[in-house]
């Protein structure tokens, strides 16, 4: 079995999406105290130790910005058994941001308990552009964080669909798709039936006060549909929920059927 964890960490601001948190901790959007970040990181780290994932994928993690006191959160999560790990600016691979830029440090990251091949790819449109393209045990895992503007998202979805079509094989596409208008937005990715929406019946993954939405999405190729089990877990420090994705070994699935 391969276990994958995905989470939008919300920059570990210790805001769970409730109106009470947004009001009482409004200042965390402007500057998040180090103590709040460390409390949030401890919760993530304990969860990873409990779940023991083979691959942990994160969006909205900070590698040091004006709004968090230039604190790199990634080394706190990385442990000795993580043989592969990277954190990268989600906006650009080449642009150097000024020290006080709001874009500096805002990143995505992943950790793996083995050596994996991966590529950093950047979408042509939108501000959030980084896509990780990871190969682990014969499964292709793409980690995305898509635009807030709908027309830009649709252009991103079309480009991601093109990348998926580059090769055959078991594929998982997971991340914060920001599909605020619902599943219909995912049509460019679901077109043709190669991918299925694995968490479509599992409820909302994001909250802002009373508003709930399934912004975080896991798409899997059809041959993985019967082998995947997804569980959605609460994150008390973020307005998004965490995914635990278990992919059964192919031979075990064959015996079970």
TrEMBL record:
Domain of life where this protein originates: Bacteria
Coiled coil: none
Entry-linked InterPro entries: Endo/exonu/phosph_ase_sf, Endo/exonuclease/phosphatase
GO molecular function: catalytic activity
Domain Endonuclease/exonuclease/phosphatase span(s) in chain numbering: 39-240
The protein's name in its UniProt record: Endonuclease/exonuclease/phosphatase domain-containing protein
């Amino acid at each position: 079995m391969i276990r994958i964890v995905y989470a939008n960490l919300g920059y570990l601001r210790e805001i769970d999406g409730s109106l009470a948190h947004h009001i009482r901790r409004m200042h965390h959007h402007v500057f998040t105290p180090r103590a709040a970040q460390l409390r949030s990181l401890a919760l993530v780290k304990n969860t990873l130790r409990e779940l023991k994932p083979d691959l942990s994928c994160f969006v909205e993690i900070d590698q040091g910005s004006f709004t968090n006191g230039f604190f790199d959160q990634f080394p706190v999560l990385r442990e000795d058994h993580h043989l592969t790990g990277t954190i990268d600016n989600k906006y650009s691979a080449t642009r150097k941001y000024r020290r006080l830029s709001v874009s500096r440090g805002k990143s995505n990251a992943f950790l793996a308990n083995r050596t994996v091949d991966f590529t950093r790819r950047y979408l042509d449109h939108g501000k959030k552009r980084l896509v990780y393209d990871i190969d682990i045990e014969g499964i292709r895992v793409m980690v995305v964080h898509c635009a807030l503007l709908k027309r830009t998202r649709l252009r991103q979805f079309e480009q991601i669909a093109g990348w998926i079509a580059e090769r055959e094989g078991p594929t998982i596409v997971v991340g914060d798709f920001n599909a605020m208008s619902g599943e219909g937005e995912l049509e460019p990715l679901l077109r043709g039936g190669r991918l299925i929406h694995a968490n479509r019946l599992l409820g909302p993954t994001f909250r802002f006060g009373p508003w709930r939405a399934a912004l975080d999405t896991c798409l899997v190729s059809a041959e993985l549909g019967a082998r995947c089990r997804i569980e959605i877990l609460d994150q008390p420090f973020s307005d998004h929920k965490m995914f635990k994705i278990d992919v059964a070994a192919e031979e075990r699935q064959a015996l079970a059927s």
